[in-house]
Amino acid sequence: xxxxxVAAVRTGPSKTEFQEFPTPEIGADSALLKMEVAGxxxxxxxxxxxPPTTRPVIMGHENIGIIAKAGxxxxxxxxxxxxxxxxxxxxxxxxxxxxxxxxxxRLCEATDWRSNPDGIRYGYTPTDRAPHLWGGFAQYAYLPxxxxxxxxxKGMSAERAGxxxxxxxxxxxxxxxxxxxxxxxxxIQGPGQQGLSQTVVCKQAGAALVIVTGTSKDAKRLEVxxxxxxxxxxxxxxxxxxxRIHQITGGEGxxxxxxxxxxxxxxxxxxxxxxxxxxxxxMVVQGEMAEFPNYPIGKIAVKYITMKSARGHxxxxxxxxxxxLASKNFDFGLVTTHKFGLKDVDLAIKSVGNQEGGLKGxxxxxxxxxx
Length: 371
Ligand SMILES: [Zn+2]
Ligand SMILES: [Zn+2]
Description:
By secondary structure, this protein is of the alpha/beta class.
């Protein structure tokens, strides 16, 4: 084992520095994770550009790795031993509250960085907090007793397992929150790795109709959406999406709307309200904006629409996502398009964000911290 751990540290907006940290002491109730793959998602794109803190942070919250060292208590308590390939949720739970007992770690106060400045979460907790290794863009990560782990199914590559976070969100938002099931008609807005994961989950659940929207920049991603089972794709730069949806559904509209856009402002909600069936229906929204001028509350009430907030994934959603990824029903190779070494983290994030200076055609990127 190396003496020092190399990490990519975000030190400011769109700024990365490579720093070394001492390998942490591993006591009886902790473990050390040798990172294999850190997935990069839209949240990384957003928080790399506009960090929520000025303190230095090792990003990387979708982490797959091998347990390099595990304390006796850790293995006894959690059932994970040295050599196991694991997925680590980014939530670090308290283990005592109502949410933790339900496996809804994302709602635990101990990991909520927004409301609790001491909250611990992989990819968000600053490096000034000992033992420093709280992110996946590093050779190793520290696992306290209250980290939340899953076994990666036998035979699954770390890169494939790296899709588990968007897929778990797919399960959580479309099935658990959205109630998508047999014969559902679904509108998925945004064909990034998140929208594509929702597509897979909705098809697997028996949805009768899946419509995916994107922009002209998303041409390749919309093709992949079709290959993964979307019944229709709409380029909103070229076509009027509402007209198309009405045409496709014979004027009836859809049952469920899933917002998987980033930085699209109020547009996805406004389209969703219009595209929804005459009465009932449910929207899962991102709610990225601080304010929503002219929010159509009257129309939402009259159409009897239920709104829910997209908010990560539960333990059960992760387990179901891993099972989905282990299945051969979908060609996930279409989604895991790119791999980057640690030194190219800046390029990797910009590429996932479809931004200036990034590579084209990237859907899901795996960051490999040892390359
Ligand atoms: Zn993410
Ligand atoms: Zn808790």
